[in-house]
Design a protein that fits this description.
The protein is of the alpha/beta class. It folds into 3 domains: 142 residues, Rossmann fold, CATH 3.40.50; 146 residues, Rossmann fold; 167 residues, Glucose-6-phosphate isomerase like protein, domain 1 (Rossmann fold), CATH 3.40.50. The strands form 5 sheets. The protein has a 5-stranded parallel β-sheet, sandwiched between helices. Strands 7-6-8-9 form a 4-stranded parallel β-sheet, sandwiched between helices. The protein has a 3-stranded parallel β-sheet with strand order 3-4-5, with helices on both faces. A hairpin with a 4-residue loop joins strand 14 and strand 15. Helix 7 packs across helix 10 and helix 11 packs across helix 15. It is globular.
Length: 471
Amino acid sequence: MGGSSLGPEVFSLVFTPQVLSGASAQSKHSGGLNFAILDSTDPGQVAATAARFTPETTLYIVASKSGGTAEVMAGFDYFWSLSEQKFGAKAGSRFIVVTDPGTSLEKLAKERGFRKVFNADPMVGGRYSALTHFGLVPAALMGIDLEKFLASAEKMSKQCAADVPAARNPGLVLGAAMGGCTLAGRDKLTVLADQQLASVGSWLEQLIAESSGKLGKGIVVVDGEPRYEAASAAYGPDRLFAYLRFDGGLDTFVAELRAAGHPILTFDLTDPHDLGGEIYRWEVATAMACALLEVNPFDQPDVQIAKDIAKGKIAEFRANGKLSAGTFVSSEAADFSATLTDFLSGTKPGDYVAINAYLPRNPQLDAMLQSLRAAVTKKTGLPTTLGFGPRFLHSTGQLHKGGADNGVFLQITSDPLSDFDIPGQGLTFGTLERGQALGDYEALATRGRRILRIHLPQPDVVGKLPGLLAG
């Protein structure tokens, strides 16, 4: 989850561009292994991933800094069961682990005979860990040239050193721009990227949102947003644009934005290995921006509240055999369209709308939710973000609860088409996912955030929502 998965996912997509296929991103770099991630408890996504990545052909990387991340351990229990059925006492040969020294996960890996244990640097936080074992072990298995990749990072580290004059320090300059713009009201950092770099925005989103979103402050990263006319009201005075340029595919659009008066920062990459340097630059810049905002870039004090509530929901289920339905409006209700429209009418300039979907992450649903984003912006004139649950809890969840009170939240849940047990845990994946959604909802409501939960009879009903807003 979070920093343990986002870095490797970005590497796989940047070095071998392709579209999402099925339940998770999959790629094969020249000379390396196919790579995919599973960072969801959604039963549909887990089942689709299991069908594509069987124990006979798969090396499973179990990655968790703490060694006890709930979603990671649920996934591990499931895939361990599949491997044990196939390989018995040799099931451990299908697994490696990346974790901090001394965790319970390290102990488990040694007890069960994992193929390899990789210990990461415990002094580096999860969202800053892309250049540690959490990113480099998967990168090596993908066949990425680590010497070249890390040389780029090393070059940037020297340029960002403390003895480099401020105006020539790439990390400091970027951090000053981000922090200064946020203090001036441009707190929506909108990422534009050429196709090969499109995935980088998801990593930036976690890095910046979780680092800055606390004490009622924060930088909102707008990633993967549908594009609008450059002079459109959709792009308000709260925007700062960052263009990750590779082949110049967005040069014309960026020029139009600049002509419309929007501030734009451009970062040129000519080789995928340049990403190593950009990761270092943005990590330094994020810390610098947080210094200007006077928040600690290395903690996440508001993440735990949703976890604690979710744990309470699961404990309730284990005690009573059922989970509370929670507060929601059904998409099948007669007044649903009016309820949704009324909720969005309460927004104001400077807000953003976060769509938090506890649904399978696949191309079909992603496209439907992108259409919903466009419809919401047309209705409100506001920027939108999109997160699939529970993965976004480990990226933007901190900003949502600890950042400024300018987020308007649409939580989307659904009844799973099928569900199945997490081995040894006494509950199903669907129950765990629902508990996490309820925990997230209550955590936001407790903080007084504006939130509406939409419940769908099945996931693809989300495709009807844009039409309701247009009506």
